[in-house]
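Hi V.,

You were right to ask for the full record rather than a summary. Here it is.
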Amino acid sequence: MSDTDQTIIVLRKPLIFGDLTYDSVIVREPTMEEIEQAQKQPTQIGVACALLSAVSGIPMPIVRKLPASEFTKASEALTAFMPGSPSTGDS
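Predicted structure:
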């Protein structure tokens, strides 16, 4: 996987889930199946959380605990991979 196939968001404060600690979120390109599965969530924020969980491997309870600003960065990274999204050139 090349650097353009993923984005790493370094968390300001690590998040802990059981005995696992997450200090970053690695966002990779989702598959169409992952997008389809995420879209089964009842809300847009639920879709974004489910998709971020799927592509990062971070459990949903941790994704839901991300600070809004860091969740936004991860969501923007995901959006760049979505069909029909404009290329920002920021990668």
